[in-house]
Amino acid sequence: MPRPREFDDEAALDAATAQFWLHGYEATSVRDLAATMGLTAASLYNAFGDKRALYERALDRYVERGFRDRVRRFEHHLPPRDAIAAFFEEIIQLSVSDPHRKGCLIVNSTIELAPHDKQFHRALNGVLKDMEGFFSRCVAAGQKDGSIPAALNTADTAKALLASLLGLRVLARVDPKRELLEGAARPVLALIGAQPRTRRKN
């Protein structure tokens, strides 16, 4: 009968995600991961597989708890134009409040791994398509309810919103100032009649 695990899988996976997010895939060793997860290398392999398998789980967890959670909260509970603005609002807030300038694990992975790894390329391309799909659905719904100009090309507008979002995440790794990020987001949000409405300190 196998012995029960003596560690918290969820906490260990959170620690691995943080390590990958801060340092990237290539720069993170199995030794680094084991240390930050509080495991031996053997326990890590037994529980999660090799470094690549662990990274895939960490990335899936990040996507689910970040992007997909945002879609559930905004798309299903806000008017479509407000859902887009709230998405940008939260991204800008996360960016300016991150002292380590980690950026976005999806974007970081896309830059580091997608160009030369076919499996990660497919997975990350799928996530980016899902992001574009969120914007496309919101734009189409906003055009239907009259809050977003009907003359806009829905597909092109969704692509422009996606490109702006990804650009913000890269820019924030270098200079995460609210004024800069809001200014960068303002023109593309103006296309749909919205503005970034990030929370400000009193």
UniProtKB/TrEMBL annotation:
PROSITE patterns, sorted? HTH_TETR_1, HTH_TETR_2
Top-level taxonomic group: Bacteria
- Give the keywords, sorted: DNA-binding, Repressor, Transcription, Transcription regulation
Keyword set includes DNA-binding? yes
Indicate the residues that the entry says bind DNA: 29-48
**Which residues are in the HTH tetR-type domain?**
6-66
Instruction: Identify the InterPro entries for this entry.
Output: DNA-bd_HTH_TetR-type_CS (IPR023772), Homeodomain-like_sf (IPR009057), HTH_TetR (IPR001647), Tet_transcr_reg_TetR-rel_C_sf (IPR036271), TetR_C (IPR011075)
UniProt-recorded Gene Ontology molecular function terms = DNA binding
Question: This chain belongs to which protein, by name?
Answer: TetR family transcriptional regulator
**UniProt source species:** Caballeronia fortuita
